[in-house]
Amino acid sequence: MTAPTTAAPNKGPDRATTGDPVGHDNDRDRDRDHDFDFDFDHDDLPTPPGATLALLRSLLAPMRTRVVIASVLLLLQQAAVQAGPLLVAYAIDSAVPAFRDGRHGPLVTVAVGYLVCALAAGGLQYAFIGASARVNQDVLLDLRGRIFRHAQALSIDFHERYTSGRLISRSTTDVESLRELLNEGLQELIGVILAFVYISAMLLWLDLGLGAAALASFVPLYGFVRMYRRRAASVYTARSTAIAAVIVKFAETMNGIRPVRAFRREASNDAEFLTLNHHHERTNGNAILEMARYVVCSRVTANITVAAIVLWGAYRVAAESLALGVLAAAVLYLRRLYDPIDRLGMFLNSYQSAAASLEKIAGLLAQTPSVPEPAEPKELPAPACELPGREVAFEDVRFAYRTGGEVLPRFDLTLAAGSTVAVVGSTGAGKSTLAKLVARFYDPSAGRVLLDGVDLRDLAVPELRRGVVMVTQESFLFSGTVAENIAIGRPDAGREDIERAAKAIGAHDFISALPDGYDTDVRKRGGRISAGQRQLVAFARALLANPAVLILDEATSSLDVPGERAVQRAMSTVLRGRTAVVIAHRLSTVEIADRVLVMEHGRIVEDGSPAELIAGKGRFSDLHRAWRDSLA
Fold first, then answer.
1. CB of 235 closer than 8 Å to CB of 315
2. Is 419 helix (H, G, I), strand (E, B) or coil?
3. Residue 499 backbone dihedrals phi, psi, to 5 degrees
4. Contact 79, 116 (CB under 8 A)
């Protein structure tokens, strides 16, 4: 038996061994335990200063020309709309008296002008809606695509901290909030601003006193707007957090529906969901109340102002210091000036909701991968022999999670090209962490992981993914056909290549027996076929991808005995000539290995061939003896 690999003294927490023959590795649980550095109760990712505004600018920048065109259309539309009261004033003060004197031209001119303005306003409104809708949909399409692409590009450790439910909330609920703002809110805001500018100018031109009185009323209205914005910002942030929590709970429950049923969690889940739902109800109610306060205060101010101006104007008309037509036009303008107050409130409602959502999206998009692409990628050297396997080496590697909890102290190890190495050990020994470093799901805290002498951090991710493939115990299949799932690792593969890989693995017979053979839709998560069949499809996928290094993370732990034997036969085919790291849960899997590593607390305590370790007096020998006795 060879000497154990030297490692620094372990500084991590002591882990009790389990009753498993080898020890089920819970490193994936350790990932979750150590990597939570976000407080999800306060949802969730920090947003860098200026990131929200920068995101909005980047979304609108490609549509700058179309935004300008839409703005010009709305400018002209508002001009056509606001010409109406001027025509009314002219009709009352000039056209009607002229008509009574037998001159019909002025009144006809007013009627034609009013009709033209109405038609122009409608046509320009239609053109604006079409132009703005195209801009809005392109912005939303771009944003959803960015979220999806960025989420895929982020490292595995991010996804082990940030739940899929929150990603769904970012790309659905939060994007929908932005859609409401773009489709309705911005038009309302621009319309209100243009109406305010046009009407203020017209009122001041018609009568300086009436115009000044109307403008004075906007001082308290501005105060109400500022107060609403300040109070609503926190309310809508809380509402966005609350709905995200509801989505997370719903997605978690539906994804885990089997254990929910098995352990009768329905009542408990219902109580938790009811609590979250009530919290969302309260936050939504708070948003509605803030909106109601703003509308009531602004509406009371507007009504008092209009009543005061009408009374004053009527007095001046009676005193013959103001023309009746001017007063009529002023009243129409005042109505148009204050009517949008409710619409402005709706805009502020949409704005606060969208601002909170956009801030969360910006926080997500600001995250950078902890496993970045190299600035200057290197290429792997040509294989030293015809076998596809490559040498894997750990040089002075240390690994700890960002919140502490060192998993691997100083660690040196070399795996020969083409060898099959089984890694066993107790719970928390670091087996899965070792495999994840080889797959570069994580980068080591110190030291290097080399593939044929090239640091994994220097390899472009596509080349690394072609060279290193991991098959996990979940054997995740995507919705789609069996053929499509096998071809994931090599999308350009033809049907003959796919069937050849399936035959080599021993999966061809059961696939051919499916209703549509290789074209059978396996449905969500491959639920149409058994766990053992899913594992065989995963092995066929790995064989077709033809990686240099294959990692099997407890690939048979969830299978029954017939399924395990079928998968082990497939393993002997797929491992041939490749460098393989087999995270072993069952000792029957270890028997196919050339070399066995026994790990404890991040250190290799035994290293040798299965026969050497079984013949010795170490931990592996004791485990093997206990396993053999259990089969007797």
1. no
2. coil
3. -70, -35
4. no
pLDDT tens digits for 499-555? 988 888 788 888 898 888 889 888 776 677 887 788 888 888 888 888 889 888 876
Of 365, 399, 424, the domain-final residue: 365
Residue 260 near residue 253, CB atoms below 8 Å: yes
- Start-to-end CA distance of the chain, whole Å, equals 27
- Range(s) of the domain holding residue 84: 40-365
In sequence order, the β-bridge partners of residue 261 are: none
User: Is 420 inside any structural domain?
Assistant: yes
Own/partner contacts of 198-202, CB < 8 Å, gap of 24 or more, are 198/78, 198/79, 198/82, 199/82, 199/333, 199/336, 199/337, 200/337, 202/82, 202/85, 202/86, 202/329, 202/333
Q: How far is CA 458 from the centre of its chain?
A: 28
What distance in Å separates the CA atoms of residue 170 and residue 241, rounded to the nearest whole number? Answer: 10
Q: How many other C-beta atoms lie within 10 A of the C-beta of residue 255? A: 13
**Chain segment 44-72, per-residue pLDDT in tens:** 577 887 888 888 888 888 888 888 888 88
423/442 Cα distance (integer angstroms): 18
Q: Tell me the C-alpha to C-alpha distance, in Å, between residue 217 and each of 211, 212, 221, 303, 314.
A: 10, 9, 7, 10, 19
Please list the helix, strand and coil fractions of the chain in percent, rounded to the nearest 5, in that order: 65, 10, 25
Specify whether the CB–CB gap between 371 and 566 falls below 8 A: no
Confirm whether 215 is domain-assigned. yes
Segment 284-327, tens digit of pLDDT: 888 778 777 877 887 788 788 888 888 888 888 888 788 888 88
Q: How far apart (Å, rounded) are the C-alpha atoms in residues 578 and 594? A: 12
pLDDT tier at 14 (50, 70, 90 boundaries)? very low
In a domain, 457, yes or no: yes
